[in-house]
Amino acid sequence: MSRVLFTKDGRRTGNAIVIKEVQPKTEALKSFLAQTNSKIYLLETDFGNRVEMSREEIERNFEWGPRNTYTEWAANRAELRQENKIKDQVDKHDRTSNS
After folding, report:
1. Least confident of 40-44, 67-71, 91-95
2. Where in the sequence is the domain holding 41, given as residue range(s)?
3. Residue 2's CB: how many other CB atoms inside 10 A?
4. How much helix, strand and coil, in percent to the nearest 5, is found in the chain?
5. Is the pLDDT score of 52 beyond 90?
6. Rounded CA gap, 25 and 44, in Å?
7. How many domains does one find in the chain?
8. Res. 83: pLDDT tops 80
9. Which of 14, 38, 51, 99 has a CA positioned 20 to 30 A from the CA of residue 74?
10. What is the spatial distance between Cα 10 and Cα 12, in angstroms, rounded to a whole number?
């Protein structure tokens, strides 16, 4: 697992990572997945939201990226959030200084 996913439409969701394959929660879904030879995967977005999607849903919404460990993904996400936080503070300071 641990494939990075790049969003196709940033308005709907950010980038994500595949965490693991999960078992379907209902018999109907289990039967459907068996008939279509599909699986369900747990994803985590760069905002920290977790969602379950089939491979088909993943491919509709994301481009497949490289393999990465979840630890690296989380560290990169934390680093980017910190960089954005600092950038937002600088931008805010610049706006108030120029007023």
Report:
1. 91-95
2. 3-97
3. 15
4. 45, 30, 25
5. yes
6. 19
7. 1
8. no
9. 38
10. 5
